[in-house]
Amino acid sequence: MYADAPSDSAPPEAVLPMDEAAMRAVDRATAALRRGEAVAIETADGSVGAAVSVESVAIDAVQRLVQLTGAAPVLAVTRRRATVLKLMGEGTGVVALSLPRCLTADEAHALADPEHRPDGAMPDGLTATAMDPGSRETAAVDLARLARLLPAAIVAPAAEHTDTGSAAEWAAKHDLLLVRARDIADYRVHVVRTLRRVAEARVPLSGAENTSIAAFRPIDGGPEHLAIIVGNPVAGEPVLARLHSECFTGDLLGSLRCDCGQQLRGAIAEIARQGSGVLLYLAQEGRGIGLVNKLRAYRIQDRGFDTVDANEILGFEADERVYLPAAEMLRQLGFTAVRLMTNNPEKLRQLARCGIEVVERVPHIFPSNGHNEGYLRTKAERSGHMF
Ligand SMILES: Nc1nc2c(ncn2[C@@H]2O[C@H](COP(=O)(O)OP(=O)(O)OP(=O)(O)O)[C@@H](O)[C@H]2O)c(=O)[nH]1
Ligand SMILES: [Zn+2]
User: Fold this and answer.
1) Can 321 be counted among the known catalytic residues?
2) Which of 83, 296, 316, 332 measures 20 to 30 Å from 205, CA to CA?
3) Nearest C-alpha to atom 3 of ligand 1 is from which residue?
4) Residues with CB under 6 A from ligand 1
5) Closest ligand 1 atom, residue 257 Cα
6) End-to-end CA distance of the chain
């Protein structure tokens, strides 16, 4: 079989250690945001405020924040979304949208969600301000992204906090989870370092009977990534590898909107044909935006937009995936060089950036199925896929 690589092998990015409590705080905050709760966010200057998801339906999110903080909230969206709304030119980062009067929850929702009153007019007097990377607004949008919600949040500073107590005291007084902006920013990289191989079993597959599956779990309780190991690849040698991002609709249901199901089964068959290799099944549904947001993107595509535009209209990048987990799993399996089955030039670049040598690209092309011509054309024309 393959040998264990040293478990402390780190991704190439130089990262400071993040303590478990900080990681737990971010993880708990994502869960709170998903439940529709407000969370307290502390910035590097020691100031504190609160944020709530625009998807919070149980309560009037704006009223809740006004009560909590005593301040008028802003809507924080990605620069992508602000550009789509024609409030700003292209750029990166996060933008705060505000009104001279208090924004309503409905207005905030409509500004953040293209499916919510898609033809709604823009409120008068709306202003857009680009925010710093270390800002509460940036942290809130990043947290919403981690929670796989729409990348937007309603955010307000705690007015009463300026002269009283610490951020922790303020959060405790209001029974809010407190999380630091810096920890949210660092989270994705840190969580990868905690991936541990927690279980492995032999799972004979049709056409690839000598197969085992190893599960890698991050410490934060997030979803496991899986390594599907076919045959007996030799540790230390270049391995035939496929990085497959989870696609519930294509992989499990056989959706014809994409090519994922074919690519998944085709990769296993090809690895078996060549003798051995690894397919990493990465918990990165919808190119990292999550299944719910992918369904939203499909609705937008049904209005005539392509897959890249649809992501951007929602405020996401065309591809939100990171390949650090894949690189870390390969290292832990004992591989530092791959023959990568892909048509996606970004996967080649990203994996190399994460310290894995790509010695060869193995094309991984399947004919269109009568429904996905547009999807494949967009991959070629806009994402640079090599077909
Ligand atoms: N956001 C979004 N994600 C999609 C859409 N269609 C498929 N996906 C996701 O795209 C991912 C599939 O990507 P991959 O199989 O890695 O394909 P790829 O990036 O084109 O690269 P290669 O196949 O390696 O060339 C899965 O997570 C799917 O859920 C879509 O229309 N929108
Ligand atoms: Zn798919």
Assistant:
1) yes
2) 332
3) 286
4) 244-247, 258, 260, 263, 284-287, 289, 294, 297, 307, 311, 342-344, 347, 364, 379, 385
5) 6
6) 34
3-class SS of residue 22: helix
pTM for this structure? 0.91
The residue length of the chain stands at 387
273 or 17, which is more confident?
A: 273
pLDDT, tens digit, for every residue of 188-224?
888 888 899 999 999 999 999 999 999 999 887 788 9
Annotated binding residues for Zn(2+), as ranges? 247, 258, 260
Neighbours of 146 (CB within 10 A): 21
Burial of 131 (0-12, 13-18, 19+ CB in 10 A): buried
Complex confidence, ipTM: 0.97
**Residue keyed to tokens 């494949």:** 376
Measured CA to CA, the distance from residue 282 to residue 224 in angstroms comes to 8
- 317-335 pLDDT, tens digit per residue, is 999 999 999 999 999 999 9
